[in-house]
Amino acid sequence: MMNLSRAVVRSFATTSARRATATSKDQIEKGYFEIRKVQEHFQKKDGKPVFLKGSAFDSVLYRITMALALVGIGGMGKLFWELSVPQKQE
């Protein structure tokens, strides 16, 4: 039983060492550099929040979301007003 556990530990230990020495710039996938480029774009310090750094479409979606949120808050305020102020009986 002890030999099996040693073999498993040894296989993990040597595999990671071999994998670290085997990787070079020639073996890195092209997609890695594309992901790196996108990460650099979103991590740029330009004062914009992350959810607005994508494109103009992100800004449009943000503004629509804010407008709908304000309409909803206004509707809730109207509802609270109608429920809290008694209606005049004629």
Automatic annotation (TrEMBL):
Organism lineage string: Eukaryota, Metazoa, Ecdysozoa, Arthropoda, Hexapoda
Name of the protein in its database record: Uncharacterized protein
Predominant cellular place of this UniProt entry's protein: mitochondrion
CDD domains: Cyt_c_Oxidase_VIIa
UniProt keyword annotation of Mitochondrion present: yes
Cellular location(s): Mitochondrion inner membrane
Single biological process term from Gene Ontology: mitochondrial respirasome assembly
Keywords, sorted A to Z: Membrane, Mitochondrion, Mitochondrion inner membrane, Oxidoreductase, Transit peptide, Transmembrane, Transmembrane helix
Gene Ontology terms: cellular component: mitochondrial inner membrane; respiratory chain complex IV
GO molecular function: oxidoreductase activity
Annotated TM spans: 60-81
Gene3D superfamilies assigned to the protein according to its UniProt record, in alphabetical order: Cytochrome c oxidase, subunit VIIa
Species, as recorded: Drosophila virilis (Fruit fly)
Family from the record: Belongs to the cytochrome c oxidase VIIa family.
Enzyme Commission number: 1.9.3.1
Cross-referenced PANTHER family: CYTOCHROME C OXIDASE POLYPEPTIDE 7A, CYTOCHROME C OXIDASE SUBUNIT 7A, MITOCHONDRIAL
InterPro entries: Cyt_c_oxidase_su7a_sf, Cytc_oxidase_su7a_met
